[in-house]
Every structure is written in C-alpha cells, then in structure tokens.
C-alpha cells in the first residue's frame, strides 16, 4: 500500500500519532495570533464592498462600440481603481458599472473613459445605481444566520453536549474570522459571491467539526468505566484515528478549489472566480484545521474541568503511579487484556481499534471467529 | 463469517441490487425527463450567460410627485426583487438607477414577458362591496331594462356560485374570468365622490334599487356611460379612485363577457393579505385559483364585511376583488366568512395564478412604473472566466480522481463511480429545476457545487475508513463492510443534518441570493445522503463478493496486509507505554 495507507494503519494501531491535545496551547497560540492578525487587518484595511452592496455609478456608452467588453473593463478599472462590471447591451452599447463612486468621481471617470474608448464624453450617459443586494436581503441574511446558529448550538448540545456545541461554535467563529480577515488583507472586493463563499465555509466548518466530534463521542462513551486513560488522552486518540479521514476529505475538497484559485486565477489574474475560490480555499483549510487543532482540544479542556473527569484523571494517575512503583509497565498487568478482549467487562474506550462489547455480542461471533 | 450472520447477509444480498436498480432507474428517468423537456443544460445566471435588462421608470401621479423618493424606490426594488426572485434561485437582479429608474436584470431563458408583467404590475388589491352590476356592451346595450339588468347579474352569479365549502366553510369562490395581469393605474382625474358606507343606490336599473345618494349622480353617469368592451374605456374606468371612494370598474365573467360594476369603498386591501398561494382546486372544478390568508386585522375586517353583505340582496351580497382597478372576482356571500382566508378564482392558467399569488404575497408597489426600455445584456463575467473556471475545475477534479486512485486503488472505482452518480444527479436535477422553478446557476453556485463534491466524497471516505478499520481488526471484507456501515451511517447522518439544518433555516428566513444558496446546499446535502445510501453502500456490498476485493488483492485497496490488519491469531502481548499515543500493536 502507499505510504499514506501505512500511515493509516499505524495511526489506527496507535503506533504513530501526534499529541494534539497536549500541544494545544501552541495551536491555541497560533490561532489567536492569526485571528488577531485577521481582526487587525479587518480594522485597518476594512472590507471593500462591491457595487452590489453599496451601489455606484453606471455609464452607458453610445451604440456600436468598437471596444470589447474586456478592454472596457480594463479601462474602467484603471480609471476608477475599483472592480468594474461591463456588459454589452442588445444595441451594442456598453453598460459599465463601478462600485463606490460619487457624482464628482463619476465625472472624472467619465472623462477618462471617453478618452480611452475614444467617444465624446457627452455621449456617455452617467448615472448612479443603487445596490442590488439591498438592506432587506442583508438583514434577512443576518436574521437567518442568527436563528441557524442558535438552533445548531441547541442541536449539538442535545446530540452531543454543550461543551462540544461551544467548541464547534468557537471553531466556526475562528474560521469565519480568519477568512474575512484574509479577504480584507488581500483587498479583494466583497461581492455576493464572497458572501456565498463564506456561507459555504460556515456549513463546511460545522460539518467537519461534527464528523470529528462524532468519533470523539463514540470513543468516550464509557469513559468512566475504565481507569486507564484520561479524557484528554482519549480525545487525542480520537483525533488520530480520524486523521486519515480528515486528511483525505480536506485534500478532496481543496484540490478542485485550489485548481480554481491557482490555475484559474493564475491564468486570468484577479476576477470573480479568484474572489470566490480564495475565500473557499482559506475557509476550507481553516475549517479542517480548526476541527482538529482547536475544537477537540477545547472540548478536552472543558471536559477536564468536570468533577467526574477530574476524579477519573486522579484515578488514572494514581494507578499509573502505583504501577510505576511496582516497577512494571501497567499495560502488561492489567490493561492489555481488559482492553483488547472484546467481551471484557470494561471495553469501549477505544473506538475503531476495539469493538465495544455490546456490538460484538450483538452482531459478530466471539473473538475466536477472527481470522 | 459465522452462522448467525447468514440471515443478515441474505437480506443484504437482495437489497444492494434493488437499491442500485432504484437509483439507476431514477437517473435514467430524470435524464429522460431532462431530454424530454428540452432543457439539457442548467440555466445560467446573468454573470455567466447574460440575459435581459428591463428599465422601468416611475410615473408621477398628479399631485403626488413627491412620492417618487428614495424610500419608495427602495421599497419598490425590494418588492420587485421578491416578485421575480420569489424562491431566491432565479438569480434576477433589481437595482435603482438614478432617481426614478429601476433596472431589472433577468437571466437568459427566463420567460421575460412574465417577468416584465410581474415587475411592472402595481398590484393594488381591494375588496369592495358590489353596489350594482350589469353586463356591459357598446352604448346600445349599456342601458338595459331593469329586468334585463337583474337577469344579467343573476346569470353571471349563477355560474359564480359562491361557496361555503363543506370542508372549511370559509372559502368564497366564484369565477368571473379576468386576466391576472391587469393594466395601468394612473391618476388622471379624481372623482369627488364621497364615501358612502352603506351600499348606495343607483339611478341605473339595479335590482336593489335603493335610494340614490346625491353624491352618486356623477358615479351613476360614469357607470351608465361605461363601456367595458372598449379597451381604452376600460383602462380609464375608476381611474384615480381613492380606496375610500365608491368607484366604477370592469371585469369579465366566466363566459368571457364584460361586466361593469359600481363598487363601494374598499373594506379590505392588499396589505391585509398575509400570504397568497396558487392552488389547483379539484373540489369546485374552478381550476387554478389563488387562496389568500389574511393577517389578523384583515381577517377581522373580512369577517365584518362579509357578515354585512350576507344580509343584503343580490347583487349587493357580492363583493368584488379588485386588482389594479379591474374586478377579477365577484363572489357571493351567504354568511360571514370568519376563517381568515379567501379564494380568488377566475379561469386562471397555472402561470397566471402563480404570478397573481406572487404579486399579492409581496404586496403592491408604492409607485406606478412604466417600462422604459428592454434590452439584452451580455454576461457580467466574460466568457473566458467561465471557460477558465471550467478548465481549472476539471483539472482539480482530475487531481481528485488521481488522489483517490493512488490512495484507495481498487476502492477508488467505487469512489469515482459514486462521484459520477452524484454529479450526474446534480446536473440533471439542476437542469430540470430551470424550467420548473426558474433555478439559475451563477458562478458562486458552481463553486459551491464543487465544494459539495468534497462533502459527498467525505461521506464515502468516512465509510471506507471504517471498513478498513474493521479489516485491520482482522475481519474479512464482507462482514467488515456490513459492520462498518451502521457507524459510518450515523456519522454521515449527524453531520449532514447540520448542513441540512443550515439550508432549511436560511431558505425559510432569507431572501434573494442567500436563499438561492440555501436551496443549493439543501439539494446537494440530500443528494449526498441519497448517493451514499442507495449507491455507495450497495455497490460496496456487491463488490465485496468479488474475488478481487474479497481476497484483498494488492490493488483492491483492501489488502489486509498493507492495511496492517491484525494477524489472524491472538497476538502476542507486548509491553506498551502508557499515554495516549501508545504503540499498542506492531
């Protein structure tokens, strides 16, 4: 099998693994740093809202223009310094829309355009246009988003628990902040496409976190019935055991978007395609990262504050100390058997590696049936 | 595996074939439907395909020039946006231009005539009591004898049997036919008629023949002179009437004859309508009708007026539903209608009923608009953008396939097949949604669909990893496939539920492009579940019987050895370190 396949096997058997939970402070630190950068970027540079949100100027040229749409777009962007939308109308005239211009600027742009397009300035009709993405759409979008977030937190709190809901929420905010911040830093204009991209990320970020949490929930189901691992340790295993899945999914999701961003954008330079794929690329990467490096360690952090888990940790540590005092490896004496025997009384701590007893009893034969 | 498994396997054996057959039939049927409908590509948004641009100019009404202000223009934009973009997937754009123009851009392939009607129609709706009515024709027939008038209205209303339907007893229905798209509404001259709350009598030979009010003589004159068969006269009828005034109006009855009316002051108006829907009425054979739910206030007013009217004699027990000064419906009332809803029937076609419902739901425009120009526009993004995007996307997808092939080997066949099925279903359904609900694909949606591929792929990656984990446990392939499924299924359902929740909430609450996004997200999420349940899982079950996979061929992607499966026998005990990353098994 390929190297990755081997890695999968070794991760599965716990031969290799990265201690995500133990090193969480580093990752928290990195994330906080990135987030602060993003917020500063946002505060300093701000977002350039596109014509769809704030309106702008529209110029209509006379009929039968010789200049092509892309030429006109270039001229318009040069003259205004903003992204321009150029459309050819039925009678051959051009409609050029430019964001964020007032009447005074509009006159200058008109002059510049008339020179570039070699048309008499008087024959270019200038007008102001309002936003097509009006306040109503924006308000309803915020409202919908708010309702969704409340519902999803409630859902996660019921399906999982409130700590996971909180962690998923933090991860979500983290992803969105980073994406918006990078958008501000790069200086792309915000279009409806950007907003759709952000919403896509919002969905993906939660989706990815939930997949990781599902494994975490499964592996920690009977955690109090054993004394071998603390919650953090099991959380860490859970991340490692779904790591292959996380990597594969991220690669599969990122490859096409990366194609759009690097190939599409590289060939064409900036454009709407670039705007969207940038926000998607950053957001997807952040979403995959935060599920593993932020959300799960955060759950472990919160869980370890629970009295039950504190007691468990105490028991686990005591046991280890005891074993160490005896001068032997604890696994030898106690856990190997208890851990790997499917019909043992204290099963169910590690998901993919060992089946919980109930499942084994329900469906499979006894362990002797294994090949 | 062992004996207890047999029953399960047997059921699993009959199932995969059926599921696969089901989904293949669905694909074939949908594809057939797509070719039959003649829409073999999804409709593209303005950014990708261009479309039609309509410029509307607000027409000042006499003495109301100040009404054309920013607030009213913005409201008009919002209402038009909702009318042409009701579901949010139509990708139409509405914006103001200058002080009194509104540009409406609709993507190619939209029924532009219908769209023009929808944005241009003011849609002022009033419920007015009928004071008098008669068939209207050229001058000669305009003054019928008293008896003729009585029979005329009787005739019209016989057919328009107003109903308290046994089922709900609340729907008033009748069927004078009228075009849903009524015409202009100007304000040339104002009738100085005073409102008269009680049905005012008329000099004309109305069957009720109650005393004539002094103020109504002008109205009577207008009524007598009105010839509804003449289009220009019809357009002027009731011009400039204020809602609180009595007025005259025209309408067509179910035989297609024009009928003229004297109508009392408006008792309920369009703002009292909460929501309107186009419904195919199978009970009364009225065909397509529009049902309206009133707001609480509207329901009270409506119950009031119908209660009053029910005590009157024909035709004063009728009320007229007047849309932009044309009577679309004039049902009878025999008792107070307290249910808070009403039905308009009028020999509508489906499109007419839907566009009327649409207009009523989103309210009347605060201003009257005239079409200034209609022209085609090219795509807002150059053609090269789309092309480059497609090429880049294709390269990205090819990379995905290569990655899957390298990583999953033989298993990647199932992965790629699942992706193809998912892509085919998405494409076909999007193509079909173009003509049915006006779904149009814009560039962000294309990108969203590409991300959706990632999410679909995730579902079977989760499943494959579970299967491989089971094999690592030392299970043979077939039981591994079955045992991995319940757990993978739960993960898939839980995570897809979150996506679906997002889609549902956003679709219900938001408007415009966000709503369109929610629709696409919901669709792709559902398809993800469908594909994994009906295609990936059954296919894997079937493939697990193949020797190539079952024997764990080196290239199958399920080779126990390279997956690092446990040896078949109990392994030897090895010391291991405590700690989370403990090398338990080597």
TrEMBL record, chain A:
Residue ranges, annotated region (Disordered):
321-371
Q: Give the residue spans that cross the bilayer.
A: 26-44, 141-158, 165-188, 194-216, 247-270, 276-300
Tell me which UniProt keywords the record has, alphabetically. Answer: Cell membrane, Membrane, Protein transport, Translocation, Transmembrane, Transmembrane helix, Transport
Subcellular location field: Cell membrane
| Every Protein export membrane protein SecD/SecF C-terminal domain range | 111-304
Per its UniProt record, what SUPFAM superfamilies does this chain match? Answer: Multidrug efflux transporter AcrB transmembrane domain (SSF82866)
UniProt feature, compositional bias: Acidic residues: 330-344
Q: Which residues form a coiled coil?
A: none
Q: Which InterPro entries match?
A: SecD/SecF_arch_bac, SecD/SecF_bac, SecD/SecF_CS, SecD_SecF_C, SecD_SecF_C_bact, SecF_bac
Write one Pfam family the protein is assigned to.
Answer: Sec_GG
The record gives the membrane topology as: Multi-pass membrane protein
**Chief subcellular location:** membrane
Q: State how it assembles.
A: Forms a complex with SecD. Part of the essential Sec protein translocation apparatus which comprises SecA, SecYEG and auxiliary proteins SecDF. Other proteins may also be involved.
In the record, the note on similarity to other proteins reads: Belongs to the SecD/SecF family. SecF subfamily.
Q: What does this protein do?
A: Part of the Sec protein translocase complex. Interacts with the SecYEG preprotein conducting channel. SecDF uses the proton motive force (PMF) to complete protein translocation after the ATP-dependent function of SecA.
Name of protein: Protein-export membrane protein SecF
Organism in which the protein naturally occurs: Streptomyces viridiviolaceus
UniProtKB/TrEMBL annotation, chain B:
Q: What transmembrane ranges does the database entry give?
A: 386-406, 413-433, 439-464, 492-511, 517-536
Comp. bias (Basic and acidic residues): 156-171
Where the record annotates domain Protein export membrane protein SecD/SecF C-terminal, the positions are 369-545
The protein's UniProt keywords, in alphabetical order, are: Cell membrane, Membrane, Protein transport, Translocation, Transmembrane, Transmembrane helix, Transport
Protein translocase subunit SecDF P1 domain segment(s):
73-130
Query: What SUPFAM superfamilies has UniProt attached to this entry?
Result: Multidrug efflux transporter AcrB transmembrane domain
- Which Pfam families does this entry report, sorted A to Z? Sec_GG (PF07549), SecD_1st (PF21760), SecD_SecF_C (PF02355), SecDF_P1_head (PF22599)
- Domain SecDF P1 head subdomain: start-end pairs: 259-366
Give residue spans, biased composition: Low complexity: 136-155, 172-182, 195-214
Describe the function of this protein.
Answer: Part of the Sec protein translocase complex. Interacts with the SecYEG preprotein conducting channel. SecDF uses the proton motive force (PMF) to complete protein translocation after the ATP-dependent function of SecA.
Record family assignment:
Belongs to the SecD/SecF family. SecD subfamily.
UniProt cross-references to HAMAP family, sorted A to Z:
SecD_B
The cross-references to NCBIfam families, in alphabetical order and at most eight, read: 2A0604s01, secD
Q: What is this protein called?
A: Protein translocase subunit SecD
Source species of the chain:
Streptomyces viridiviolaceus
Q: What is the lineage of its organism?
A: Bacteria, Bacillati, Actinomycetota, Actinomycetes, Kitasatosporales
């Amino acid at each position: 099998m390929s190297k990755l396949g081997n890695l999968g096997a070794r991760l599965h058997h716990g031969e290799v693994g990265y201690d995500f939970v133990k090193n969480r402070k580093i990752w928290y630190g990195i994330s906080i740093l990135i987030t602060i950068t993003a917020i500063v970027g946002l505060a300093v540079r701000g977002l350039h809202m596109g014509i769809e949100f704030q309106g702008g100027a529209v110029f209509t040229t006379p009929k039968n223009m010789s200049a092509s749409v892309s030429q006109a777009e270039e001229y318009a962007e040069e003259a205004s310094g903003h992204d321009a939308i150029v459309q050819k109308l039925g009678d051959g005239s051009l409609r050029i829309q430019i964001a964020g211009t007032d009447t005074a600027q509009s006159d200058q742009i008109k002059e510049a355009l008339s020179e570039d397009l070699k048309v008499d300035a008087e024959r270019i009709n200038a007008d102001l246009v309002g936003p097509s993405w009006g306040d109503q759409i924006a308000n309803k979008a915020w409202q919908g988003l708010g309702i969704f977030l409340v519902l999803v937190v409630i859902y996660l709190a019921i399906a999982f628990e409130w700590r996971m809901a909180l962690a998923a929420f933090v991860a979500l905010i983290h992803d969105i902040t980073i994406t918006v911040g990078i958008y501000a830093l790069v200086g792309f204009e915000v279009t409806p496409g950007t907003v759709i991209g952000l919403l896509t990320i919002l969905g993906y970020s939660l989706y990815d976190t939930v997949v990781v949490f599902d494994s975490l929930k499964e592996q920690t189901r009977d955690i109090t019935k054993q004394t071998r691992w603390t919650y953090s340790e099991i959380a860490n295993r859970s991340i490692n055991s779904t790591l292959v899945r996380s990597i594969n999914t991220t690669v599969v999701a990122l490859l096409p978007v990366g194609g759009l961003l690097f190939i599409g954008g590289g060939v064409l330079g900036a454009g709407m395609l670039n705007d969207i794929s940038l926000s998607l690329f950053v957001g997807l990467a952040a979403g995959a990262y935060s599920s593993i490096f932020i959300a799960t360690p955060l759950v472990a952090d919160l869980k370890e504050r629970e009295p039950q888990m504190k007691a468990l940790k105490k028991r686990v540590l005591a046991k280890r100390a005891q074993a160490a005092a005896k001068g032997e490896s604890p696994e030898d004496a106690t856990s190997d058997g208890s851990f790997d025997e499917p019909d043992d009384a204290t099963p169910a701590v590690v998901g993919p590696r060992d089946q919980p007893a109930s499942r084994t009893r329900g469906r499979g034969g006894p362990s002797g049936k294994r090949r | 595996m062992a004996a207890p498994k047999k029953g399960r396997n047997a059921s699993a054996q009959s199932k995969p074939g059926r599921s696969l057959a089901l989904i293949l039939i669905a694909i074939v049927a949908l594809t057939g439907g797509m070719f039959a409908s003649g829409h073999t590509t999804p409709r593209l948004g303005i950014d990708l395909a261009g479309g039609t641009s309509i410029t509307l100019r607000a027409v000042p009404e006499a003495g109301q020039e100040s009404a054309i202000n920013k607030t009213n223009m913005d409201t008009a934009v919002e209402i038009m946006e909702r009318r042409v973009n009701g579901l949010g997937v139509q990708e139409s754009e509405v914006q103001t231009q200058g002080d009194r123009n509104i540009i409406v851009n609709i993507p190619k392939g939209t029924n532009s005539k219908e769209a023009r009607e929808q944005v241009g129609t003011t849609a002022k709706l009033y419920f007015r009591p009928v004071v008098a009515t008669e068939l209207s024709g050229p001058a000669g027939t305009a003054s019928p004898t008293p008896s003729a008038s009585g029979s005329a209205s009787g005739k019209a209303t016989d057919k328009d049997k107003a109903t308290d339907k046994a089922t709900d007893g609340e729907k008033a229905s009748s069927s004078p036919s009228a075009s849903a798209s009524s015409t202009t509404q100007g304000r040339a001259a104002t009738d100085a008629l005073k409102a008269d709350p009680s049905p005012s009598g008329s000099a004309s030979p109305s069957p009720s023949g109650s005393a004539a009010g002094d103020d109504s003589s002008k109205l009577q004159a207008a009524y007598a002179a009105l010839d509804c068969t003449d289009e220009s006269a019809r357009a002027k009828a009731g011009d400039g009437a204020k809602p609180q005034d009595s007025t005259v109006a025209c309408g067509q009855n179910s035989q297609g004859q024009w009928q003229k009316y004297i109508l009392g002051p408006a008792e309920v108006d369009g703002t009292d309508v909460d929501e309107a829907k186009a419904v195919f009425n199978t009970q009364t054979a009225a065909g397509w009708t529009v049902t309206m739910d009133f707001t609480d206030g509207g329901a009270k007013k409506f119950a009031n007026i119908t209660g009053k009217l029910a005590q009157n004699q024909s035709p004063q027990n009728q009320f007229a539903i007047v849309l932009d000064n044309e009577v679309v419906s004039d049902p009878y009332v025999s008792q107070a209608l307290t249910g808070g809803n009403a039905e308009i029937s009028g020999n509508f076609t489906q499109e007419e009923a839907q566009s009327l419902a649409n207009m009523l739901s989103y309210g009347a425009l605060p201003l009257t608009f005239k079409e200034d120009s209609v022209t085609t526009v090219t795509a807002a993004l150059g053609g090269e953008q789309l092309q480059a995007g497609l090429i880049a996307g294709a390269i990205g997808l090819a990379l995905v396939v290569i990655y899957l092939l390298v990583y999953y080997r033989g298993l990647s066949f199932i992965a790629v097949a699942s992706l193809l099925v998912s892509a085919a279903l998405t494409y076909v359904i999007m193509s079909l949604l173009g003509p049915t609900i006006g779904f149009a694909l814009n560039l962000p949606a294309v990108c969203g669909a590409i991300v959706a591929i990632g999410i679909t792929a995730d579902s079977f990656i989760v499943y494959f990893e579970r299967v491989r984990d089971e094999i690592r446990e030392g299970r043979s392939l077939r039981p591994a496939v079955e045992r991995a499924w319940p757990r993978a299924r739960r993960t898939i359902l839980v995570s897809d539920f979150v996506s679906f929740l997002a889609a549902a909430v956003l679709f219900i609450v938001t408007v415009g492009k966000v709503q369109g996004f929610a629709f696409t997200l919901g669709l792709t999420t559902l398809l993800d579940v469908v594909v994994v349940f009906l295609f990936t899982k059954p296919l894997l079950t079937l493939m697990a019987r193949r020797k190539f996979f079952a024997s764990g061929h080196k290239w199958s992607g399920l080779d126990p050895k390279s997956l690092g499966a446990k040896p078949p026998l109990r392994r030897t005990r090895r010391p291991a370190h405590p700690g989370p990353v403990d090398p338990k098994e080597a």
